[in-house]
Design goal:
Elements lengths: L9 H22 L4 H18 L14 E4 L5 H11 L39 H15 L5 E6 L6 H13 L4 E7 L2 E2 L2 E2 H5 L4 H7 L3 E6 L3 H8 L10 E6 L22 H10 L2
Parallel strand pairs: 1-2, 2-3, 3-7, 6-7
Antiparallel strand pairs: 4-5
Helix pairs in contact: 1-2, 1-3, 1-9, 2-3, 2-8, 4-5
Length: about 280
């Protein structure tokens, strides 16, 4: 199957991530809605996947042999939409309708409305089980396709994730990659004061996964890890990506109130300048 050629160097991915962040800031400001903190923390991860890792074709978004990317933290829809547009799944102009009445670009992604969206997400704890199911299907089909799922760290407080993690380890799903956006913050508080997750690596390993920990805002580290999966034959792979919520915008970084706060005109101009 032919694929469209995409950039693969660290510099090209960084440029893509910077452009995605800028577009995301514009979208959230224009809509007056969004989850900008989580969008910005995940931008390097999503850009690395779409511009250097995933085997997908924007011209054939439903190709049965494509890799699957499932964004379980569906509230961070802005970064997904901005990335899909940058990758050519739909026109950039559609981003101007983000969250507008009647727009296909809802606050939570809808696969029935947006090319490139694999499954509807938003209710936390659903994406990883779905990714596990697609990985089982690929094994049954004898297909080399892979499933990558991005989870928020606060989302791991949902028990459905741990059922899926246990099942994936039991079934040896080495075509499944879980990426944890470990920014340490969730709505209203830090993850560790809400319901502690650490030691997160040991927990995944206890369920039969192979784990690597990276700086999730360092493209070189992301490229090294995500192009090396599976880390071990017969075991699913987990990448714990330590990120900064609001990465790239100084007054948003690591501030819990920016989980879903919206920048005003002055703040938007400042953010775009910092991201230039």
């Amino acid at each position: 199957m032919s694929r469209t050629r995409v950039p693969s160097t660290a510099d090209q991915v960084r440029d893509a991530a910077r452009a995605i962040r800028r577009r995301d800031v514009e979208m959230v400001h224009a809509a007056g809605l969004g989850h900008i903190g989580g969008d910005l923390s995940a931008a390097d991860i999503v850009a690395t996947l779409y511009f250097a890792v995933l085997d997908v074709d924007p011209e054939r978004p439903d190709d049965p042999e494509r890799d699957r990317y499932i964004q379980s933290k569906g509230h961070a829809s802005g970064v997904l939409y901005a990335t899909l547009a940058a990758r050519g799944f739909f026109a950039d102009e559609l981003l101007d309708s983000y969250m507008a009445d009647g727009s296909p670009l809802n606050g939570h992604p809808d696969r029935n409305k947006v090319p490139g969206v694999e499954t509807n997400t938003g209710p936390l704890g659903h994406g990883l089980p779905v990714a596990g199911g697609t990985s089982i299907a690929a094994k049954l089909d004898g297909s080399p396709r892979r499933a990558f799922v991005l989870c928020g760290d606060g989302e791991l407080q949902e028990g459905s994730n741990w059922e899926a993690i246990m099942a994936a380890g039991h079934r040896g799903l080495d075509n499944l990659v879980a990426i944890i956006d470990r920014n340490g913050l969730q709505q209203g508080a830090g993850t560790e004061e809400t319901n502690a997750l650490d030691p997160l690596d040991a927990k995944f390993e206890a369920f039969g996964w192979t784990v690597r920990t990276v700086d999730g805002n360092d493209v070189e580290q992301l490229l090294e890890a995500l192009t090396a999966v599976p880390f071990e034959s017969g075991r699913p792979s987990c990448v714990i990506a330590h990120t900064v919520k609001g990465r790239g915008v100084s007054f948003i970084e690591d501030r819990v109130e920016w989980h879903h706060k919206v920048p005003n005109a002055e703040q938007t101009a400042r953010a775009l300048e910092e991201l230039s």
